[in-house]
């Protein structure tokens, strides 16, 4: 009985001893380096157990391992014994567990942690935080995009933990947050010592399309491209280069956003102060075309002073063309000052005013009545446009094409490109209009034919054709038509067939229309007029004399 009790007690004590002395797998234990061989450290972790750890696990990223025989180290016990009877241990896992404990406390208290960037991965970098590996996004490296992160690799520096998840093993850190915090403190101090209007020196730190960032000693100010010079600056690199020291004026300070606006041109005299004296209205100056738009071209008169030549002031003759077809960038041109608005800093310029008005020149060299020769440039429903000197056109109206044909009929004889002669009939300089006439080159046959003929005149015509509706007659080459109703006073005699071609007939002129070039004549009107004249001269039918007596007397009187 006693022996059995002793055995049970011994077994219980043995088990208790084993439980106390044997470390638990998955825990961090202390060990001693007893040997270094074949790139591994042999570590005695006690409890009659030894394990092996690769030397690289004792090295920081980018550094040589610092381990020697006799050193005491903490390792992570994966398994108590492997197939070779050795303990499976890891220094890296021990460091990670230790680091996670430390980092969780820092994350909770929003404290900074120290680490070193040691690798590049997609979207950013890897950072060693003393045993735990964190991800540093590319956007969190610096306050501005970093092109070359080489100088930052392996350098121990502070980071801010943005996010961590121990279960998944994820840590996200930021270097930018540290820089911004430190920058904000430094910025606030520098800004407190600056005042608007103050002149300071700075170093050009960065150049963009819209300006340059100038370091004023811990704080950056923006020097906008429009504040670099009074003249037009296409790109800041025309004036500045990175690393250059420049003198600038503090134009504006935003206390809330801590933004500083700088200016260089403010340190120079404003050329607009003397624009009216240097460029009086009506004066002509040579300038350089700096920019071309759809509505005109900008011309630099001097550094800092530009004027606009509106498209309507570019050419006397080219009305609907793009300014780029008249002038080109960097071209030197003569311009006239038309208007100055110093308040709005605008100068209106004219290009065409430096050249003579081509309509004035034409009026001087081609007085009314002179003959020109030109090419038909265009044909419209109301006439021809003929090209003249200095890129101007003259118009021949339909009514000025021919004496004998209707305008619509006469214009069919012309084609674009035909060379024609015409007489100048009018030059309107103000309206920029020149009227021409082709028919004026020929004699007016109608006017010659009816010269001296007036309404009421009696003329002799020759019958040229007999028709059902009347007869065609001719007078001095001009043809007229007498309708049936105008062939006689008496209805019975209003018969065209009583006439023959070649007959000479006296007719009375009832109308002379120079515009329609028509001569209206009537036999009936002549007979009525003769009757009236006879009655007035030889008596009245009321006195008892018959119409035959009166006409007879009138005929005798003619004999």
UniProtKB/TrEMBL annotation:
<dbReference type="InterPro" id="IPR035104">
    <property type="entry name" value="Ribosomal_protein_S1-like"/>
</dbReference>
<keyword id="KW-0687">Ribonucleoprotein</keyword>
<dbReference type="InterPro" id="IPR003029">
    <property type="entry name" value="S1_domain"/>
</dbReference>
<dbReference type="InterPro" id="IPR050437">
    <property type="entry name" value="Ribos_protein_bS1-like"/>
</dbReference>
<keyword id="KW-0694">RNA-binding</keyword>
<keyword id="KW-0689">Ribosomal protein</keyword>
<comment type="similarity">
    <text>Belongs to the bacterial ribosomal protein bS1 family.</text>
</comment>
<dbReference type="GO" id="GO:0006412">
    <property type="term" value="P:translation"/>
</dbReference>
<feature type="domain" description="S1 motif">
    <location>
        <begin position="369"/>
        <end position="439"/>
    </location>
</feature>
<dbReference type="GO" id="GO:0022627">
    <property type="term" value="C:cytosolic small ribosomal subunit"/>
</dbReference>
<feature type="domain" description="S1 motif">
    <location>
        <begin position="197"/>
        <end position="265"/>
    </location>
</feature>
<dbReference type="InterPro" id="IPR012340">
    <property type="entry name" value="NA-bd_OB-fold"/>
</dbReference>
<dbReference type="Pfam" id="PF00575">
    <property type="entry name" value="S1"/>
</dbReference>
<feature type="domain" description="S1 motif">
    <location>
        <begin position="282"/>
        <end position="352"/>
    </location>
</feature>
<comment type="function">
    <text>Binds mRNA; thus facilitating recognition of the initiation point. It is needed to translate mRNA with a short Shine-Dalgarno (SD) purine-rich sequence.</text>
</comment>
<keyword id="KW-0677">Repeat</keyword>
<feature type="domain" description="S1 motif">
    <location>
        <begin position="110"/>
        <end position="176"/>
    </location>
</feature>
<protein>
    <recommendedName>
        <fullName>30S ribosomal protein S1</fullName>
    </recommendedName>
</protein>
<feature type="domain" description="S1 motif">
    <location>
        <begin position="456"/>
        <end position="524"/>
    </location>
</feature>
<dbReference type="GO" id="GO:0003735">
    <property type="term" value="F:structural constituent of ribosome"/>
</dbReference>
<dbReference type="GO" id="GO:0003729">
    <property type="term" value="F:mRNA binding"/>
</dbReference>
<dbReference type="InterPro" id="IPR000110">
    <property type="entry name" value="Ribosomal_bS1"/>
</dbReference>
<feature type="domain" description="S1 motif">
    <location>
        <begin position="26"/>
        <end position="92"/>
    </location>
</feature>
């Amino acid at each position: 009985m006693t022996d059995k009790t002793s055995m049970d007690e011994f077994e219980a004590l043995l088990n208790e001893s084993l439980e106390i002395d044997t470390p638990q797998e998955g825990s961090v234990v202390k060990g001693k380096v007893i040997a270094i061989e074949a790139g591994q450290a042999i570590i005695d972790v006690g409890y009659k157990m030894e394990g092996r750890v690769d030397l690289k696990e004792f090295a920081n990223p980018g550094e040589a391992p610092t381990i020697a025989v006799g050193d005491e180290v903490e390792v992570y016990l994966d398994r108590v014994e492997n197939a070779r009877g050795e303990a499976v241990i890891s220094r890296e896992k021990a460091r990670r567990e230790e680091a996670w404990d430390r980092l969780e406390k820092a994350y909770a208290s929003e404290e900074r942690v120290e680490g070193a960037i040691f690798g590049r991965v997609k979207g950013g970098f890897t950072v060693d935080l003393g045993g735990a590996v964190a991800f540093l996004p590319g956007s969190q490296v610096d306050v501005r995009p970093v092109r070359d992160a080489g100088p930052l690799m392996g350098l121990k520096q502070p980071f801010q933990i943005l996010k961590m998840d121990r279960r998944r093993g994820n840590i996200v850190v930021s270097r930018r947050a540290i820089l911004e915090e430190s920058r904000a403190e430094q910025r606030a101090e520098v800004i407190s010592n600056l005042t608007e209007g103050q002149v300071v020196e700075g170093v050009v730190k960065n150049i963009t399309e819209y300006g340059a960032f100038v370091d004023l000693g811990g704080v950056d100010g923006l020097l906008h491209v429009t504040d670099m010079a009074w003249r037009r600056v296409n790109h800041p690199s025309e004036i500045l280069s990175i690393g250059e020291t420049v003198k600038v004026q503090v134009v504006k300070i935003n206390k809330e956003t801590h933004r500083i606006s700088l200016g260089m041109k403010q340190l120079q005299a404003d050329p607009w102060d003397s624009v009216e004296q240097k460029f009086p209205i009506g004066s002509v100056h040579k300038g350089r075309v700096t920019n071309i738009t759809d509505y005109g071209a900008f011309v630099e008169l001097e550094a800092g002073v530009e004027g606009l030549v509106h498209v309507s002031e570019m050419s006397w003759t080219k009305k609907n063309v793009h300014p780029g077809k008249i002038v080109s960038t960097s071209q030197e041109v003569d311009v006239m000052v038309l208007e100055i608005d110093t308040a709005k800093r605008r100068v209106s310029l004219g290009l065409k005013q430096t050249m003579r008005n081509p309509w004035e020149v034409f009026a001087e060299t081609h007085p009314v009545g002179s003959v020109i020769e030109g090419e038909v440039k265009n044909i419209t429903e109301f006439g021809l446009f003929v090209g003249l000197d200095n890129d101007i056109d003259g118009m021949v109206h339909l009514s000025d094409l021919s004496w004998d044909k209707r305008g619509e009929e006469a214009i069919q004889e012309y084609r674009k490109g035909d060379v024609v002669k015409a007489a100048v009939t009018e030059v309107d300089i103000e309206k920029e209009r020149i009227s021409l006439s082709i028919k004026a080159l020929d004699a007016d046959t109608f006017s010659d034919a009816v010269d001296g003929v007036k309404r009421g005149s009696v003329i002799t015509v020759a019958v040229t054709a007999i028709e059902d509706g009347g007869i065609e007659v001719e007078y001095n080459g001009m043809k007229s038509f007498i309708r049936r109703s105008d062939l006689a006073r008496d209805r019975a005699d209003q018969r065209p067939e009583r006439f023959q071609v070649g007959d000479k007939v006296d007719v009375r002129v009832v109308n002379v229309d120079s515009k329609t070039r028509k001569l209206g004549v009537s036999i009936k009107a002549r007979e009525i007029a003769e009757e009236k004249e006879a009655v007035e001269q030889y008596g009245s039918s009321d006195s008892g004399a018959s119409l035959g007596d009166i006409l007879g007397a009138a005929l005798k009187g003619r004999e």
